[in-house]
Amino acid sequence: MPNKITKKLKRFACLIAVTAFTASSAYADGVKVGFIGSLSSDAGLSALRGAQIAIDELNAAGGFNGEPIEYVKADTREDVTEGIKAYEYLAESEEVDFILSGSIDDVSLGWLPRMKEFRIPTLDTWTSYIGIIDMVIEDYEGMKTYFMNVASDEALATLYVDFGRDILAKKMGWDSVVILHEDTAFGGAINGLVSELLAPESGIEVLDTIVYDTATVDFSPIFNRAVDTGADFIYLISSVNSQVVSSQYTKLQVPKAMTGVNVAALGQEYWEDTGGEGGGISTLSPVPSVGFALDPASQEFVNTYTAKYGDSRPRFPHFNGFNAYWGIKQAFAAAKDAGGFDPDAWPQEMLKQDIKLEKDGEIWLRYGFWQPGEVEERTGRTYPHNIKFDITPPYDNGAPSMVVIQWYENGETAVIYPPKYATGEFAVPSWVK
Q1: pLDDT (tens digit per residue) in 71-84
Q2: Which domains occur in the chain, in start order?
Q3: Parts of the chain with a pLDDT under 70
């Protein structure tokens, strides 16, 4: 059994000035990784399983300092209060050394104060809320143990502005939109960014914004209002129960094309979950996505995943499953150089991690991090501890922040934007004139 006194001293060394432990003695009982996220959602399970595969591989190679890596989990149930309890459980009862999060935005915002209190190195693989990166900027000392290895909202929005300009405006000739978004932090953040950027940069006017409750089961009045605006298309922003709004859009044959950010459509189970009533919808997706051509290293991870978990959903990992896999590898590489998961030393080594995955001789995916004070040229701002995205074509310094994928009416999927990663073309549903 782990030595509880040693564990507590290691956790609070920075507070009580304990400096006598060396890296080898502090981790004599091994290292414990905690997972926090929904254990009943495809996204949560993707992250849980991606991390498990990485830990299995690390343990097969000798663990950490010759000791095994233990993996424990805590269920957030996609609820803010449960998420706070889950973080406290991992910190106080399990006394973990590192936390891998598969939490949605609202839940991460709930437990962030606990992270600052316990100073546990934590990696978010799903949350993309730009406000959290702003917290890192504003309170670096308090937030430096936090990392986000999915592109934040602002990067997401720039990719969609490009898609809006090149495809929706130039190719389709559309110049007006109605935004339909759920009442969540995620929905509000994406709505703000799209509203502020879509019109001036793509020449598309926002005619109306409709906010709906995540428990909504009848979308017919909402779609009627959207159609009545006269907008050329609907922009959906949905991360919770997205299959409901998706299937009703198709069943009702809403006479407007609908695109946007649809989390349910990011997984291969989407078609099954909508009863085959999810065709015609396109969505912006972090990479890798369904329909995305994989590099050899990512394909190897998928092969391992499907061999281990292919008989249960999600049968194919969501993007955050990839993020969790590579993130665990980076976290332990950083811990090796830092002598452990010390809250002051580990972040500096984590910032040095940079995995570049190649396909056909060019960078295809990248898992690196923006440095404090480093300015991204297009947006003119900093993204400390966020994944190193490339939002300017030709995307030769890493992967784009996102891609746009489409589900066709026959159940097939493809990446439709940007051109470098495209495996298909944008199409409106057959019932839309």
Answers
A1: 999 999 999 999 99
A2: 4-150+294-357 (3.40.50.2300), 154-286+401-421 (3.40.50.2300)
A3: 1-29
